[in-house]
Amino acid sequence: MTAFIIAQTVEDDSAIFTLHMLAGLMLTFVVLLRIVWGFVGSKHAKFIDFSLHPKSVFAYFRGILSGSKERWAGHNPASSWAALLMMLFALGLGLTGFLMTSGPNKENFEDIHELLSNGFIIVAVLHVAGVVLHTLRHKEMIGLSMIDGKKNDVPTSEEITSSHPAAGVLFLGLVIALSVYIYKNYDRQNQTLQLFNTQLKLGENEASGHGGDSDDDD
Fold first, then answer.
1. Strands 198-201, 192-195: parallel, antiparallel or unpaired by DSSP?
2. What is the distance of C-alpha 202 from the center of its chain?
3. Residue 213 has what pLDDT?
4. Among 216, 192, 214, which residue's Cα sits nearest to residue 105?
5. CA-CA distance, 191 to 183, in Å (whole number)?
6. DSSP state of 120
7. How far apart are CA 7 and CA 11, in angstroms?
């Protein structure tokens, strides 16, 4: 949301616009951590537990229209697809943003970057709407289950054995470590970021020969 709001409200030639790219970089890293957790994490966080079959999706939406009270211990079909799409959109945004700041042909990726951004926001809004719908239909604060992994009326066999607080602390520590790394390697005057031996140009002075007064968007 930070990256999206900046992109919509701040002029491309503003130094503040570089925060759009830094926020996008952090988003990409967080999503990469989530993808790792999708393979090694708790039962319902794993991708193998996602309900992605088209028949399941159609049945889910029919159930909404018919007032079905069917429950899922993990992701329901709609949230399974929403989570997967948001991860793919985020990775696409990170890749196109990287290509736009590390190469000479950024115009080739701008339209793709904007398309992915709009797609991400649309899916995110629909996902939040789904959370609200679930909360109203089932009288359950489903948002809390995204933190502790616990849901009401879940069979014992489907419960997770632990919310893995150590993994949460580790992931948080990694995010903080990357934030510190970016802060130390971001050149505010030249609007460049040295990221693991790759220089990303977050701003480009086109109007004059001295740096820092204007920049391109990513």
1. antiparallel
2. 20
3. 42
4. 216
5. 12
6. H
7. 8
> What pTM did the predictor assign?
0.83
Q: Which residues pair with 210 in a beta bridge?
A: none
DSSP labels, 136-194: HHHT--HHHHHHH---TT--GGGS-S---HHHHHHHHHHHHHHHHHHHHHEETTTTEEE
Q: Is the pLDDT of residue 49 over 90?
A: yes
Beta strand 192-195 with 186-187: parallel, antiparallel or unpaired?
Answer: antiparallel
Tokens of 151: 């849901």
pLDDT digits (tens, 9 = 90+) for 11-46: 877 888 889 989 999 999 999 999 999 999 888 889
Q: How far apart are CA 66 and CA 60, in angstroms?
A: 10
Average pLDDT over residues 44-67: 90
Taking residue 152's Cβ as centre, other Cβ atoms within 10 Å add up to: 11
